[in-house]
Amino acid sequence: MQTVAIVGVGLIGGSFGLALKAHGFPGEIVGVSSPGSIEAAVQSRAIDRGAALAEAVKDADLVYLAQPIGRILSTLHLLNPLVKADALVTDAGSTKHLIVETARKHLHRCAFLGGHPMAGKESRGVANADAALFRNAQYCLTPSDPAELEKPAAREFRDWIGRFGAREVVVGADEHDRMVALSSHLPQLASTALASLLADDDELLAGPGLLGATRLAMSSYEIWRDILMTNSGAISEALTAYIQKLEYLRESLRSRAMEEEFQRASETAGKLR
Q: Are residues 166 and 183 in the same domain?
């Protein structure tokens, strides 16, 4: 792998570029993004230069799509005539079913491997990029066929993920979307709902519990809009299950069942950590 094109040089794309360089990537990294992001990315050395999409991908061995989901989908419609035949296109989108299906329909000249690094921050933009962002994070890969993982370009990409210190997780696109609806999208909406509920209360007693529970509420709707739209079915099921659990807790406020819920929750929280 000698040339990498990063399309969308923000937090994730910028961190990917920084991680490549931090772990010895010897080739050129070309960025496709807004002029301001390109300037900041060059200054931080996340990329070597900026270019228009067609120029950036024509010689790229790896095309890394790190845009918001809607723009990833749009880019996938354009790439087929632009990329090298032996290139690998991958993405960092937070939902996978629609992205994988779109790539299957529109990319025929090169390989595609869906991806989702389970890493991020509330702060956006390349200014917040970090070479260590992927360290110890799960990095989901969603091949349509297991054989896609063994193609030479995919094996080299997976090797870089390992060098970053990320933990590779292979899962189907639909199963990925079901799982992240519970583990990522539901926590965001729960935090958003709590902060919104309290928005008109000017005299809150805000301790660390409330600050922790509302941390995700600071996330940008611009990013979450596409996630909610492309995974609405799984998110709706997750919300239904969560509402049912809340109703059960409400009914159990004065019963011993609440102690069991606390114990079960504590054990689960411990395992997650």
A: no
3-state secondary structure of 203: coil
Of the candidates 54, 6, 58, the one whose C-alpha atom is nearest the C-alpha of residue 29 is 6
How crowded is the C-beta side of 263, counted as CA atoms within 13 Å? 5
Residues 181 and 241 in one domain: yes
pLDDT tens, residue by residue, 92-109: 999 999 999 999 999 999
Strands 167-170 and 138-142 turn out to be: parallel
pLDDT digits over 24-49, tens only? 999 999 999 999 999 999 999 999 99
33 and 158 share a domain? yes
Both structure tokens of 199: 């928005």
Tokens coding 230: 């492309």
Give the residues of the chain that fall short of pLDDT 50: none
Domain containing residue 250: 175-272
Q: Are residues 239 and 207 in the same domain?
A: yes
Tell me the three state secondary structure of residue 6: strand
CATH of the domain at 43: 3.40.50.720
Q: Where are the alpha helices (DSSP H) in the chain?
A: 11-22, 35-44, 53-58, 69-79, 97-106, 152-163, 173-180, 186-197, 208-213, 221-230, 232-251, 257-272
* 207 and 162 belong to one structural domain: no
Task: Write the DSSP symbol of residue 94.
Answer: S
> What is the Cβ-side half-sphere exposure of residue 14, based on CA atoms within 13 angstroms?
25
Same domain as 167, residue 261: no
